[in-house]
Design goal:
Oligomer: single chain
Largest sheet: none
Strand content: under 5%
Number of strands: 0
Structural class: mainly alpha
CATH topology of the largest domain: Rna Polymerase Sigma Factor, Chain: A
Number of domains: 2
Order of helices and strands: HHHHHHHH
CATH superfamily of the largest domain: RNA polymerase sigma factor, region 2, helix turn helix motif
Shape: globular
Length: 164
């Protein structure tokens, strides 16, 4: 692929998938600086891996896998533990501004999700993005049935925590 073609394809992929990339980075970031670092790292890995994307899966599946693996590797490499964002207002920044009640619900949801382990975060994030169980299984490496079971447990845990 020529450089100009790669640049054009990269810009299209990033522009079309900016929200997906931001969501994944947000779920693993500990603060705004980590978010920016993760976002840049994900973009760099998308750039490097774009030539090897063969189209055997949907581009969104490949992007999820790239973004999640980048975030997990980032924290392993920097010996940092991903915890919840110190400023939950950051969640509202990512959300559409359609009223304070919705923003508060999103803050609560992101707060609860941020307490999950890395794989559970990935699973619930993709489910909230309306990805199929098969696509979630492909990204995570679990079987479809395992995804269904884990998702049920995650939703139950989040519901219990929300009712506290």
């Amino acid at each position: 692929m020529r450089q100009s073609e790669k640049e054009s394809r990269f810009m299209k992929v990033v522009n079309d998938s900016r929200q997906l990339i931001c969501k994944v980075c947000y779920m693993y970031a500990t603060d705004r600086d980590h978010f920016q670092d993760l976002y840049q790292e994900v973009l760099a890995n998308i750039w490097v891996g774009l030539d090897s994307f063969r189209g055997e899966a949907a581009i969104s599946t490949w992007l999820y896998r790239t973004a999640i693996n980048t975030c997990v590797t980032f924290f392993r490499r920097h010996n940092t533990h991903a915890t919840s964002m110190t400023s939950l207002d950051f969640a509202a920044d990512l959300a559409a501004d359609d009223g304070s009640a919705r923003a508060e619900q999103l803050r609560e949801m992101y707060s609860l999700i941020s307490g999950l382990d890395k794989l559970d975060k990935a699973i619930i994030l993709m489910w909230l993005d309306e990805r199929s169980y098969d696509e979630i299984a492909e990204v995570t490496g679990f079987t479809r049935n395992n995804v269904a079971t884990r998702l049920h447990r995650i939703k139950s845990r989040l519901a219990r925590q929300s009712n506290r």
